[in-house]
Amino acid sequence: MPFGDAAAFGCYQTGRPDGIFFVKLMNILGLNFFHANASAALMVDGKLVAAAEEERFNRVKFSAGVPLCAIGYCMKQAGLQFKDIDVITYPRATNTRIVNKDQIHFQDRIYKVTSLYDRYRINLKLINFKEMVADHFGIPVESLVFKLREEDHHLSHMLSGFLYSPFDEALVLSCDAFGDFVSVKAGVGRGNRIEIVRQVEFPHSIGLFYTMVTQFLGFNGYGDESKVMGLSTYGYPEYTDKLRTIISADHGTLRLNLKFFNQESGVGTTWADQTPDITQLYNENLTRLIGDQRRPEEEITGRHQNIAASVQHLTEEIVFDLIEDLYSAHPITNLVLTGGLAYNSLLNARIIDETPIQKIYVPPSPGNSGLALGSALAFLGDQAQRAPMDHAFWGPEYSIRDIEEALTSAGVASEELSDPIERAVELLISGRAIGWFQGRMEFGPRSLGSRCILVNPLAPDPRRIKRRHNLKPLGISILEEHASAYLHSVQHSPFMSFMGRLKGKHRREFENVTLNNYCRYQTVGPENPLLRQLLLRFKEKSRLPFLINTSLNVEGEPVTESPRQLIADIGRMRLDAAIIGEYLVTSREGSGEVSGRDSG
Ligand SMILES: [Fe+2]
């Protein structure tokens, strides 16, 4: 049976005598919208040409809504006009299984009537989508010939990972809170197809369980699960057995005990001003089970650390169980992990030690922003081609002229560098924290070489650059050939998808960098030439093969997208200097302000 709808739209994979395959020219714009992490991805002729998150442009962290700015960027990058777009895809199964969804609501009372109403309201907005686009971009609605196509949420997650992985054959697992009323989907990927073999339906969800305990520990922000993951490294999982009362798993099945969930407010996501927010999930039964919840301003105690360690431990146990169940039916040792849970880099790292899996691929954007790309791939179906992804630089870039204009209009002094890498290394050796802005922006949340804050790990107080809660791990970028000298169980990690534990002899030396000896790491090989060159030159001078590399943003705000934003925020980011393309901008000593023209 054909997979995907592309053939019905006149898109064909064609064989040629020379054996080269191609897809008939077709422009597909994939979107994630009305959902946290709104994003756009554009595929031309079956190939990805641009992808970006809306938050980078509208400056609303995790922005939901319609990614109009990201759409505009993708079109500009590809040099296309809206009349050239054949299909717009999005990950949302609007009508399928709707009776089932209603039944879920009425049986379990955890999904609110208002949430169902919200879904219908969004469906109404979809009807007017062309008018919205025409209005925003100032074009006649008649010129928009594209068709709108909805695709399955988890299949979109899975394809965005598997088709860009290095594996011809792999187990493919997608886990999140839920999407299209499914929280886990698992399959076997072969060639360019994924056969779905398991699924867990709402409300049973490992993602909801993790978020519920995250809220209980006083972390109420969207994406705060990473703080609990960090906190877990300090604790002992003494609450694991108690938490088993809430969630149980057996041979690939999963069940939540709904008596611990707040059925008054249910599970709902709102996005006032485009900022996503999740309703409080737990109720007083959780307090009866493991004691009082922590208020956000309350000090973190050993008990909180132990609860965090327990939710992390139980989550890992359940995911390992899912993987082992899959493996026993389909003994394949490659794994592709997608869905929001794939941001849990500690869990990702432990899979190798605890299951038969030998190689793991996590895409640069495994969460919902990656659905823009995944939905386009789901549409292409059989016409989609495997294209192992060795970089994540799918976002905007700025020319020298753009950078010069930004410097001039900001009125700041700058120095043109003949060798930006050499100057970066000099600054790093002298303990300076630098902003590193080069080439196309990363797609996904990690700084991988284009929009980075770089710091020498031996600099005094390397954590000063962000007023970050001490619970989020700092990332490091390390030359891949030296990684195993510093870290246990090193994996190929070009997208900073894994946590590593420092080897004993290095622990004291780098205790400021790590969370209880753990840090998130990016392995840097020849596929990332600029960052690799910088690391090689830094190693020549310092003998260290790695740098602290954290995203180029003010804490709590989206990653910096443009030179203009970077120049404006150098002080708020506590940077000593920024290298933007070939230009150096320095901060006035101690003032956090960039130098004006008059001060040189
Ligand atoms: Fe998702």
Describe the protein's topology:
Layout: E1 13-15, E2 21-23, E3 27-32, E4 39-44, E5 47-53, H1 55-58, H2 68-78, E6 87-91, H3 98-108, H4 113-127, H5 129-137, E7 147-151, H6 153-162, E8 169-179, E9 182-190, E10 193-201, H7 206-216, H8 225-232, H9 240-243, E11 247-250, E12 253-256, E13 269-270, E14 277-278, H10 284-290, H11 302-329, E15 334-338, H12 345-354, E16 359-361, H13 371-380, H14 400-410, E17 415-416, H15 420-429, E18 434-437, E19 451-455, E20 475-479, H16 483-486, E21 498-501, E22 518-524, H17 529-542, E23 546-551, H18 563-569, E24 577-580, E25 583-586
Parallel strand pairs: 3-6, 6-7, 8-15, 15-16, 18-24, 20-22
Antiparallel strand pairs: 1-2, 3-4, 4-5, 8-9, 9-10, 11-12, 13-14, 17-25, 18-19, 19-23, 20-23, 21-22, 24-25
Helix pairs in contact: 6-13, 7-11, 8-11, 11-12, 14-18, 15-17
The structure holds fe (ii) ion.
Fe (ii) ion is lined by residues 153, 157, 176, 179, 339-340, 368.
Give a verbal description of the structure:
This protein is α+β, with helices and mostly antiparallel strands. The protein folds into 3 domains: about 5-155, Nucleotidyltransferase, domain 5 (2-Layer Sandwich), CATH 3.30.420; about 165-360, ATPase, nucleotide binding domain (Nucleotidyltransferase, domain 5, 2-Layer Sandwich), CATH 3.30.420; about 400-600, DHBP synthase, CATH 3.90.870. The strands form 6 sheets. A 9-stranded mixed beta sheet has the order 17-25-24-18-19-23-20-22-21, sandwiched between helices. The chain has a 5-stranded mixed beta sheet with strand order 5-4-3-6-7. Helix 8 packs across helix 11, helix 11 crosses helix 12 (about 345-355) and helix 15 (about 420-430) crosses helix 17 (about 530-540). The longest helix has 28 residues, at about 300-330. The chain is globular, with a radius of gyration of 24 Å. It starts with 12 loop residues before the first strand and ends in a 14-residue tail after the last strand. Bound molecules: fe (ii) ion. Fe (ii) ion (FE2) binds near residues 176 and 339.
